[in-house]
């Protein structure tokens, strides 16, 4: 199989990720539960993983890093804890349903309002548009660092500066950029960075996290045992303990740690490799009028994915043919991001998404192109 669905979940993983998960499962022990050697070893795994994430994102206080089961939980944690009745939120025109649906829930149940910043067909927008939409009740700006449909990289640093100018919080969704683009939490001066473990960070599914700027208080989504100060019957008001109640996904976090280490050592190479492959695919689409692709024309302005359609051909049908006849795995239809599809004018068509990873080979892109040639001629 040629796997070109890395924007959904990366595969394959570095071998050290598989080894770490296996070793953790075989070792036994529950972190922060007791002083036996197995429990202490598992606590060490969590500590080292947190330290690795802090190094990758340049987080000074690693206790501000909370591990979650995925980025959706991280985003929900911020939105449902920070926002109260009457608050107003601005979101980018390419936000994923993991942002839109919690906000819609809060709108319907808590009287929280949100507006979508208008952008062009790539999802890009002028930051001056944000200032026009800020009201006296605006509290938060939510920005997807890069669209999972259009690939567009948004100017987080510029948006963060604007947010600070108006005393607004900023939440960045790094689902498509963590482990692919350099992200400096301190330099960007953002309040919240949400990330998932199983995409660019090359870790297992069921892992993710949230980085919270020091001094910001949040309310946990889940309450329960943390293994610390067990005499207390209330949550402790501590980072990260308050937000990691219950038994953690220690094998997943062990694997995530190794995925993060791999990214730290290879980040620049990963970015260059993915840009090269995407540039090759973009050039093919530009030279063949039967294909329509969405997002920026230049690979430098997008992450490692391209969504396209063969004119007048159903995207699901293209995906089925690629899978069944050519053993090429891609994503088709709508990608849990109707806002991005609206931006790209593909809400009715959907699209075929090709997404590469650090282990995608140039030959695999060549085979995809050959397959698309055959499909486009026969449909």
TrEMBL record:
<keyword id="KW-0808">Transferase</keyword>
<dbReference type="GO" id="GO:0006534">
    <property type="term" value="P:cysteine metabolic process"/>
</dbReference>
<keyword id="KW-0663">Pyridoxal phosphate</keyword>
<dbReference type="GO" id="GO:0031071">
    <property type="term" value="F:cysteine desulfurase activity"/>
</dbReference>
<dbReference type="Pfam" id="PF00266">
    <property type="entry name" value="Aminotran_5"/>
</dbReference>
<dbReference type="InterPro" id="IPR000192">
    <property type="entry name" value="Aminotrans_V_dom"/>
</dbReference>
<dbReference type="InterPro" id="IPR010970">
    <property type="entry name" value="Cys_dSase_SufS"/>
</dbReference>
<dbReference type="InterPro" id="IPR015424">
    <property type="entry name" value="PyrdxlP-dep_Trfase"/>
</dbReference>
<dbReference type="InterPro" id="IPR020578">
    <property type="entry name" value="Aminotrans_V_PyrdxlP_BS"/>
</dbReference>
<comment type="similarity">
    <text>Belongs to the class-V pyridoxal-phosphate-dependent aminotransferase family. Csd subfamily.</text>
</comment>
<dbReference type="InterPro" id="IPR015421">
    <property type="entry name" value="PyrdxlP-dep_Trfase_major"/>
</dbReference>
<dbReference type="GO" id="GO:0030170">
    <property type="term" value="F:pyridoxal phosphate binding"/>
</dbReference>
<feature type="domain" description="Aminotransferase class V">
    <location>
        <begin position="2"/>
        <end position="368"/>
    </location>
</feature>
<dbReference type="InterPro" id="IPR016454">
    <property type="entry name" value="Cysteine_dSase"/>
</dbReference>
<dbReference type="InterPro" id="IPR010969">
    <property type="entry name" value="Cys_dSase-rel_unknwn_funct"/>
</dbReference>
<dbReference type="InterPro" id="IPR015422">
    <property type="entry name" value="PyrdxlP-dep_Trfase_small"/>
</dbReference>
<protein>
    <recommendedName>
        <fullName>cysteine desulfurase</fullName>
        <ecNumber>2.8.1.7</ecNumber>
    </recommendedName>
</protein>
């Amino acid at each position: 199989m040629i796997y070109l669905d890395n924007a959904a979940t990366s595969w394959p993983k570095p071998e050290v990720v598989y080894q770490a998960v296996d070793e953790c499962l075989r070792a036994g022990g529950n972190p922060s539960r007791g002083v036996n050697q197995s429990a202490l070893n598992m606590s060490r795994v969590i500590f080292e993983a947190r330290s690795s994430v802090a190094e990758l994102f340049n987080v000074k206080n690693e206790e501000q890093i909370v591990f979650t089961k995925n980025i959706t939980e991280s985003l929900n944690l911020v939105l449902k804890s920070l926002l109260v009745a009457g608050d107003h939120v601005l979101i980018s025109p390419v936000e994923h349903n993991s942002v839109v649906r919690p906000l819609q829930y809060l709108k319907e149940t808590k009287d929280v309002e949100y507006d979508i910043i208008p952008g062009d067909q790539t999802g890009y927008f002028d930051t001056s548009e944000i200032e026009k939409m800020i009201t006296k009740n605006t509290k938060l700006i939510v920005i997807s660092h890069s669209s999972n449909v259009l690939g567009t990289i948004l100017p987080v640093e510029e948006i963060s500066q604007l947010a600070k100018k108006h005393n607004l919080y900023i939440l960045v969704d790094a689902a498509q950029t963590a482990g692919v683009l350099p992200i400096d939490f301190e330099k960007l001066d953002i309040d919240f960075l949400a990330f998932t473990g199983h995409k660019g960070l090359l870790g297992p599914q069921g892992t993710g996290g949230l980085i919270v700027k020091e001094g910001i208080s949040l309310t946990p989504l889940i309450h329960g045992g943390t293994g610390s100060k067990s005499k207390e019957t209330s949550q402790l008001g501590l980072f990260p303990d308050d937000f990691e109640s219950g038994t953690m996904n220690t094998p997943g976090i062990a694997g995530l740690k190794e995925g993060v280490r791999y990214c730290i050592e290879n980040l620049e190479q990963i970015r260059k490799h993915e840009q090269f492959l995407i540039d090759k695919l973009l050039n093919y689409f530009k030279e063949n009028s039967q294909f329509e692709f969405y997002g920026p024309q230049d690979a430098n302005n997008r992450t490692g994915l391209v969504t396209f359609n063969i004119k007048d051909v159903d995207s699901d049908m293209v995906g089925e043919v690629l899978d069944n006849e050519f053993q090429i795995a891609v994503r088709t239809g709508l990608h849990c991001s109707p806002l991005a599809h609206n931006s790209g004018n593909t809400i009715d068509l959907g699209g075929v998404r090709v997404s590469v990873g650090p282990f995608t080979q140039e030959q695999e892109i060549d085979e995809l192109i050959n397959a698309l040639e055959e499909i486009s001629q026969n449909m």
